[in-house]
Amino acid sequence: xRIWFNAPIIGTAIATAAVSAVISVSVRPTAGQASRxxxxxxxxxxxxxxxxxxxxxxxxxxxxxxxxxxVMQQGVYPYPYAQVPAAPSLPFGSAGGVxxxxxxxxxxxxxxxxEALAKKKENAAxxxxxxxxxxxxxxxxxxxxxxxxxxxxxxxxxxxxxxxxFSSTARTIHLDRVNEPPIDLWMGHSVGRWERDTLVVNVxxxxxxxxxxxxxxFHSDAxxxxxxxxPISPDAINYEVTLTDPMVFTRPWKISMPLYRxxxxxxxxxxxxxxxxxxxxxxxxxxxxxxxKHWEGETMNVDITRKVPPGEQLYNRWNR
Length: 320
What we know:
alpha+beta, Lipocalin, nine-stranded mixed β-barrel, 13 strands, 23% strand
């Protein structure tokens, strides 16, 4: 029996139960226990556990300076460094800022084609409207691996299952021959193999609907990945990805980062089914009477004016 884990799932308990029907799982001690084995019964590195990245890659894969807001606008002076937080960022103060980063891209810069770089800049300018993360869409790979949320690895003999807190989604890494999916997927199609102590995963069959980060870095449906999971210690994995997409990039390029095991004795996945949290953001304009329209604080008032998205305007025009 095969089950495709490329759509949101209802709760991590269901994910774990479904996996047990597909793969044989070797249950390991709780993350904080000293008796945790470093290898599975068949001698492979034991990646089972709860993991999380600890970096700024979800803001921007490339190195960047800290800035005052996730959405910025021109300030008094006409210089790029003199921008100020735009209206959506202003009420959040320091909590709405973007931390600086050394970046995770080998060589520092993503090798975009000229026209694709223009698209990336357009994406960044419209981040608040266009980023799939804000709409709670499935994050795709590799983004799911370094979002600021926990994920769980359940390692079997023929499959490795990963369950993610964000959007309660999951992916399956197949370690044996399987048929490709009939359609392109948000999370892609993953087939892995062991090269000594490194898990090597080829991922393809992507759609073009996901981004790599909040900076607008994107791909086409021609994207393919080669992931490499190499143990640094029982509690750290070096995660390296080679990304190839001839429609968007001039050459293959790499990112790398450590993933860390969560060591709290009672660590577990907690549901973050964010679909429920974005209903007003995405569909509030469909209400007969606007619900969220005014907020009054000590230092400012915020008023919301709803707009009908362009695609919906066109649909309404066709269906008059």
